[in-house]
């Protein structure tokens, strides 16, 4: 899957050093609910376990460099307490700090949503963002997600205890 600027592609073990470069930034992971990576080995383990499913988890590769600058995916609701409907996947994403506020994440999310519409029978998607990370919510809203009016407090996420999560949903098919 690709646009003029990005490619969504499976993660490769050879991406571990680049993943560590971006995922070790203390400004990146905590905004999405996960701790900064501590080593290249940890990043490699994330590629092998968390990012292993190439059918619904991708590296966001910047065409200009040929290197991954973030991650995008969807799947069963994680350990968070979002009010997902039966069978409703959760979407998630992050982009490295040097690429914030350039529309890259919005472009990648729209690409993934187009893929989901064309290749699945998924009726709706759910997501959320910590209220202290409104930029993530703007990405979702630009791609058609609508706030549900619900907020949940999630104690299961890294630094999530007491941090409210604003819930959004995208209806794909009625």
What key phrases describe this protein's structure?
4-stranded antiparallel sheet; 3-stranded antiparallel sheet; 7 strands
Describe this structure in words.
- The protein has 174 residues and is an alpha+beta fold.
- Helix content is 27%, strand content 28%.
- The protein has five helices and seven strands; from the N terminus they run βαααβββαβαββ.
- It has helices at 16-23, 29-32, 40-49, 104-119, 134-142; strands at 6-9, 57-62, 67-75, 90-95, 124-130, 146-153, 164-171.
- Strands 1-2-3-4 form a four-stranded antiparallel sheet, sandwiched between helices.
- Helix 1 (16-23) crosses helix 3.
- The radius of gyration is 15 Å and the shape is globular.
- The mean pLDDT is 91.
SSE topology:
Layout: E1 6-9, H1 16-23, H2 29-32, H3 40-49, E2 57-62, E3 67-75, E4 90-95, H4 104-119, E5 124-130, H5 134-142, E6 146-153, E7 164-171
Helix pairs in contact: 1-3
Concise account of the structure shown:
The protein has 174 residues and is an alpha+beta fold.
């Amino acid at each position: 899957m690709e646009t003029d600027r990005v490619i969504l592609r499976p993660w490769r073990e050879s991406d571990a050093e680049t993943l560590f470069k971006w995922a070790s930034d203390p400004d990146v992971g905590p905004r999405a609910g996960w701790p900064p990576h501590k080593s290249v080995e940890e990043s490699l383990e994330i590629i092998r376990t968390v990012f292993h499913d190439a059918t619904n988890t991708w590296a966001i590769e910047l065409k200009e460099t040929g290197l991954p600058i973030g991650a995008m995916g969807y799947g069963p609701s994680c350990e968070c307490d979002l009010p997902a409907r039966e069978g409703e996947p959760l979407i998630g994403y992050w982009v490295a700090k040097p690429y914030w506020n350039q529309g890259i994440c919005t472009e990648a999310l729209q690409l993934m949503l187009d893929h989901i519409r064309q290749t699945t029978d998924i009726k709706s998607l759910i997501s959320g963002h910590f209220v202290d990370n409104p930029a993530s919510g703007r990405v979702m809203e630009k791609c058609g997600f609508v706030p549900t009016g619900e907020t949940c407090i999630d104690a299961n996420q890294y630094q999530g205890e007491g941090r409210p999560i604003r819930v959004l949903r995208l209806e794909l098919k009625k």
